[in-house]
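Researcher: Structure for this, please.
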Amino acid sequence: MPGEYLTMAEIETRHPNEWVLIDRPKTTAYHEVLGGYLVYHSRDRDEFDRGMADHPEVTDGAVIYTGTYDPYATYLFNPASGVASRRPLTPSPLVGEGWGGG
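Model: Predicted structure, C-alpha cell format:
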C-alpha cells in the first residue's frame, strides 16, 4: 500500500534522476502529473522495469523519469480500461492525447 501523497516537486527532490512509479496520480487536463502516491523508484531503467512487475496493485498510475528527459517520457496507464497516454512537457495544440499524437 502506498504511503503519503507527494507532490511532483517532493518526488523530484527526494528521488532526482530516477524512474518513479506513482499510484493514483493527480493530473491536469493536459495529463501533467501534479503528484500521487510513490510506489517504487530506481535509477536503473532495466531494474525499474523488472521491479514494476512486483506492483500489480497499481492499476491507475504514472511512470516518470525525474531527470532531464524526452518530452514524451511520462506515461499514464490504466490497464483495466485500456487507457494509456503520454504528455508533452508543455501543452501544445499540435500534440493530441494518446499514443498516436492526434
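Researcher: Any notable elements?
Model: The radius of gyration is 13 Å. DSSP finds two helices and six strands in the chain.
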